[in-house]
From TrEMBL, chain A:
Species annotation: Rhizobium loti
Name of the featured protein: ABC transporter permease
Membrane topology: Multi-pass membrane protein
CDD domains the UniProt entry points to: TM_PBP2
SUPFAM superfamilies: MetI-like
From TrEMBL, chain B:
Keywords from the named record: Cell membrane, Membrane, Transmembrane, Transmembrane helix, Transport
Pfam families, per the entry: BPD_transp_1
Family of the protein in this entry: Belongs to the binding-protein-dependent transport system permease family. CysTW subfamily.
Name of the molecule in the record: ABC transporter permease
Domain of life: Bacteria
Cellular component terms (Gene Ontology): plasma membrane
Subcellular location: Cell membrane
Organism for this UniProt entry: Rhizobium loti (Mesorhizobium loti)
GO biological process: transmembrane transport
């Protein structure tokens, strides 16, 4: 007992300090700003100054103005397309990784994940130079005789945003799909084989359904990251590639309408939360049943 | 996986190669270009040169931005490792309230950076804090905290409880147990978390753009320069930054992966 008593004082002092810090930090720097942000969306702006009186005007404007809803919807479709492209490329790659043995499997996985940590801005810039009118892609297509002259199909428009975002986000799709494929018990595949199923049957009836949770998480990751990005559209979108993130960003810059920007962010946040919840729901339900 | 038929393997390998080429092409283009001069939009492939690297050394704007980035990164690492470790120690083994506060810690990482950044921007304005390097450091710390917290917590959870019990049995005080047993066991997770935090801070652009004052970090400076199109010495900078990030990746993997794999095997 006496030994326990000597342990107590410093432990208690430490835990008091830690308790204060543990609550203060997340609450002050995360919860409070987000709460203020939400409150701001109910304010308005009059001649460059913020009017601190509650109003639903921002939300009414979002739903009634002919500009915002279409862009919002187009951006959602764009980011869903990015998610689909990423999964179509990432699934075969992740599947290939699981067919490898031991060291090679993880070495190659690392190789495909390392580009994640490489400078984001620089990658966007490099992709822009690849897609550009004088870029490598156009030069290659002309050299191969596929195009007569450089095409403007992927320069400063929605296609450019689609391609750039897909290229940037593929690693985020590879990891969850790889993890879910790797978790599939080998015994199931062997049992399927023993029972006389062909490779394709085993894939369609066992591997694919069991890997769908990973696909769901991958889609949700990629979608959330794509829809939150305003740098890529700003850099490669040009005038015609206008996304919701850019509109949002402009409300805090040139338009200087912070309350309206906050209301647009709330709309974005709702979509993001839905995407995360859907990803969680489908990413988990089957995963736990194994 | 069971053995695949040969055509299927070739098909999968081809797609994997394509993905690797796609992922690495935006990294190789600037590196290769950095060794050649560009005139009138065309690369002169005939004579490799280091002139872009020399020009970079004379670019004061970029060097100042690099200095800012390093200062912000170091402050962010210190703040996030200290508070992330404290939070992990606090929440480890605690049930009540943990999931809610843990959720709050993860919010800035889950939310689009534009939302976290704007929320902080308005918050700083409301409390009267001028945009400066301090606001950038706060923004980065809030953003990377979840990573450090998770890294340390995972190590804590994989740590054997018997070590702590043995320490108490041998008559060590709480502080002694903390300094001699818990902290050394956490150190490699903390170092790994610190490297990841630094890498994330080094590259963070979207939050930084929103909360920065007159001094900008390297990614923000580059972003501003790229909108106008920039000089070839940036290719040299890109090459150097990429090498630096590879180094960070290797270091982070060294500190984080061996232990985790060992933990999986047991």
């Amino acid at each position: 007992m006496s030994a326990a008593a000597t342990i107590q004082p410093p432990e208690r002092r430490l835990s008091l300090l830690v308790t204060v810090l543990a609550f203060a930090l997340p609450v002050i720097f995360v919860l409070v700003p987000l709460a203020i942000f939400l409150v701001y969306s109910f304010f308005s702006v009059d001649q460059g100054t913020i009017v601190y009186a509650p109003t639903l005007g921002n939300y009414v404007r979002f739903f009634t103005d002919p500009i915002f809803l279409p862009v919002f919807w187009n951006t959602i479709v764009l980011c869903l397309s990015v998610a689909v492209i990423c999964i179509l490329l990432a699934y075969p790659a992740a599947y290939f990784l699981t067919t490898l043995r031991g060291r090679w499997r993880y070495a190659l996985l690392m190789l495909l994940l390392v580009p994640l940590l490489m400078s984001y801005v620089i990658k966007i810039y490099a992709i822009r130079s690849i897609l550009g009118l004088n870029g490598f892609l156009n030069k290659a297509l002309v050299a191969l005789g596929i195009l007569q002259q450089p095409s403007t199909l992927f320069v400063f428009n929605m296609n450019a945003i689609l391609l750039t975002l897909s290229l940037l986000l593929i690693p985020f799709a590879i990891l969850p799909i790889f993890l879910s494929l790797e978790r599939i018990p080998q015994t199931l595949l062997r049992a399927s084989d023993d029972l006389g199923a062909s490779g394709l049957q085993t894939f369609l009836r066992i591997t694919l359904p069991l890997s769908l949770p990973g696909v769901a998480s991958a889609a949700s990751f990629v979608f959330v990251l794509a829809i939150g990005d305003f740098l890529t559209p700003q850099m490669v979108g040009g005038i015609s590639g206008f996304t919701f993130g850019r509109i949002l960003y402009s409300q805090f810059g040139t338009a200087y309408n912070w309350p309206f920007g906050a209301a647009l962010s709330v709309a974005l946040a709702i979509v993001v939360i839905c995407a995360i919840l859907i990803g969680e729901r489908f990413g988990r339900s089957r995963g736990t049943s194994i | 996986m069971s053995a695949l038929p040969r055509p299927a393997t070739i098909f999968l390998a081809a797609i994997t190669t394509l993905v690797a080429v796609l992922l690495y092409s935006p990294l190789f283009v600037p590196i290769v270009s950095s060794f050649f001069t560009i005139s009138h939009g065309d690369v002169d492939w005939s004579s490799p040169t280091l002139s872009t690297y020399r020009a970079l050394a004379g670019n004061d704007d970029i060097l100042a931005a690099l200095r800012t980035t390093l200062i912000v990164g170091i402050c962010t690492v210190i703040l996030s490792v200290v508070s992330g470790t404290l939070l992990a120690l606090y929440y480890h083994g605690r049930r009540s309230g943990r999931s809610i506060l843990q959720f709050i810690i993860f919010l800035p990482f889950l939310m689009p950076p534009i939302i976290s950044g704007l929320a902080l921007l308005i918050f700083f304005r409301e409390i009267g804090l001028e945009r400066s390097l301090l606001t950038v450091v706060i923004g980065h710390t809030v953003f990377v905290l979840a990573i450090v917290y998770r890294t340390v917590l995972m190590r804590l959870q994989s740590m054997s409880r018997t070590l702590v019990e043995a320490s108490y049995d041998l008559g060590a005080t709480g502080w002694q147990t903390f300094w001699r047993i818990i902290l050394p066991n956490l150190s490699s997770a903390m170092v790994g978390g610190a490297i990841l935090a630094f890498a994330l801070s080094f590259d963070e652009t979207m939050i930084t753009i929103l909360v920065t004052g007159t001094q900008s970090t390297l990614p923000v400076r580059l972003w501003a320069m790229m909108r106008l199109g920039f000089s070839p010495d940036i290719n040299a900078l890109v090459a150097l930054i990429l090498m630096f990030t590879v180094l960070l990746c290797v270091l982070a993997a060294r500190f984080l992966i061996p232990r985790q794999m060992a933990a999986e095997r047991t």
